[in-house]
Amino acid sequence: MSRAAALRYLDRALVAPPDERAVPLLLGPVAGRDTALADAGLDRATWSAARRAWVAHADRLTRALRWVDPLADHGGWTVTVKDTIDVAGMPTSLGHAVHRHHPAVTADAATRLREIGLSVVGKAYATELNIGPPDQALNPAFPDLSPGGSSTGSAVSVAAGISDFALATDVLGSARWPAANCGIAGLRVSWHPARLAGVLPVSPTQDSIGLMARTVEDLRLLWLRAPVAPLPHRGRTGRPVVATVRNVASAAPPMAGAQERVVDVLRDLGFTVREIELPEAMWSARELAWELCAADVAEVVAETEARLRMTISATARASLREAVTAGRHRELHDAQREFRAAMPTFLDKTGVDVMLLPVSPSPPKRVVDRAGRPTLPKPADADYTDRIGYTPIASFAGMPALVLPAVVDDELGPLAVQFVGRAGGEGTLLDLGVAVEHRLGVSATIAARVATTLTGRWPC
Q1: What is the CA radius of gyration of the chain?
Q2: What pLDDT, in 10s, does the model give residues 412-449?
Q3: Residue 309: enclosing H or E segment and its boundaries?
Q4: Is the Cβ–Cβ distance between 154 and 396 less than 8 Å?
Q5: Helices (H), 309-442
Q6: What gap in Å lies between CA 21 and CA 237, rounded to an integer?
Q7: What residues have CB less than 8 Å from 376, skipping those under 6 apart?
Q8: Phi-psi map region of 171: left, alpha, beta (phi>0 left; psi -120 to 50 alpha)
Q9: For residues 273-302, b (16+ Cβ closer than 10 Å) or e, as one string?
């Protein structure tokens, strides 16, 4: 009798995938969806029900969300919000296993998305205070690969079709790495302090809003409707000049190959592609960016533990470095201001509008290799040079950056590149990314892999 009762409960806990006609649309782009729904014979009510069922099914497998809104409208555009960004009526846990608070005010960036009609599906899993390991969620495109952090659940929820978009944060790649590892598009927007209202900033002069979608074209659709407080574009008009960065010559051959594929596409599209080399002082600023972040994080953790009466885990605490002196902290901020002023001048001098780099020197790491390791690297780490990556350049300079998958390797996973543009140049990056994305044609490959992970087959 007890076994029968348990089985009845377990049957209710297992949510079946929705109508197979809906699965390709759930994992496909927003662009063209209305036509695709009509072609598939799915009305709004059927579509909404299919999406609601899919959220329960996909989240059970991927653990992308910390909290789900059972009353969310799934008929239109949907978004998940990182668990370090406040949404009134939804708990914020800051990625902590025990803590939660209930904000009365929604973060400005989330408010902007709601104003244009996006429905918040729920809060996405984030690593603990942005510094813990991304061990909880499953990468739906490549389950054996780490999904990356700290905006882990944001990328997973989009890749898994739980939401159309994700609102995240990017410090030194916190949104770009997960987007790259999960094979989706990710945009770090230009830095501006006003954008951080209602957001936990772990490095306030480097933190910025991140947006994610399954395709760059979808990101552009979102940006055109809700540019999240855009800055004036200080770049040149006309078709942008793109430059590869010679400093990345030590990148692993697969990453170099992915970038070369994008270069070939750009040239085929008629874009001018040059090669530049950042002066050593500018290239080494990547390490200063991490040092500044570590110094800022130490202060934020101390204040958070004291004010919220919470204690971070040992694995998150392992990210913390020894405290720097107040004088060294000022030196780091001075170095950042100099870098932020020098970068536009350097781009003007070289006649470049957009820099093209791999996201990382090496392919995504496997779960077994990253398990238990904190997000922030330390100089003593054997793989420190690899782990600091190429993402800090945009962060230290306050510039926008767009990530998209260039190659999908069956063994290595998605191999992503990033376009780094001038402050306020999100529109330029998105236009460029859409043109490249259409030629690369890898989004369908990612969707098919996700479908295999979450349903066991790709519906016809």
Answers
A1: 21
A2: 999 999 999 999 999 999 999 999 999 999 999 999 99
A3: none
A4: no
A5: 314-317, 326-350, 367-370, 384-388, 392-397, 426-440
A6: 44
A7: 131, 290, 293, 294, 297, 319, 320, 321
A8: alpha
A9: beebebeeebbebbebbbbbbbbbbbebbe
Question: What local confidence, expressed as pLDDT, does residue 460 receive?
Answer: 39
List the beta strands (DSSP E) in 189-280.
208-213, 242-245, 273-276
Instruction: Say which DSSP state 383 is in.
Output: T
> Could you read off the pLDDT of 173-208 as tens digits, one per residue?
999 999 999 999 999 999 998 889 999 999 999 999
- Tell me the pLDDT of the chain averaged across its residues: 93
How far apart, in Å, are the Cα atoms of 216 and each of 32, 36, 158, 198, 206? 14, 19, 13, 26, 23
**pLDDT > 90: percent of the chain:** 82
Instruction: Inform me whether the pLDDT recorded for 229 exceeds 70.
Output: no
258 has pLDDT over 60 = yes
Average pLDDT over residues 20-31: 89
Tokens for 383?
């793989």
Determine the average pLDDT of the residues in 354-364.
97
Report the amino acid identity of residue 173. Answer: G
Per DSSP, 425 falls in state -
Spell 439-453 as b/e; 16+ CB within 10 A means b. Answer: ebebbebbbbbbbeb
Ramachandran quadrant class, 129 (left: phi over 0; alpha: psi -120 to 50; beta: rest): left
Task: Specify the pLDDT at position 9.
Answer: 86
Q: Which residue spans within 115-265 are E strands per DSSP?
A: 119-124, 165-170, 185-188, 208-213, 242-245
Q: Which residue has the higher pLDDT, 379 or 15?
A: 379
- The residue assigned the tokens 């044609």 is 441
CA–CA gap between residue 289 and residue 295 (Å, rounded):
10
Residue 359 and residue 387 in contact, taking contact as beta carbons nearer than 8 Å: no
Q: Are 140 and 159 in contact (CB under 8 A)?
A: yes
Instruction: Write the CB contacts of 440 (distance below 8 Å, at least 6 apart in sequence).
Output: 261, 262, 265, 404, 405, 406
Identify which of 211, 209, 176, 212 has the alpha carbon closest to the alpha carbon of residue 195: 209
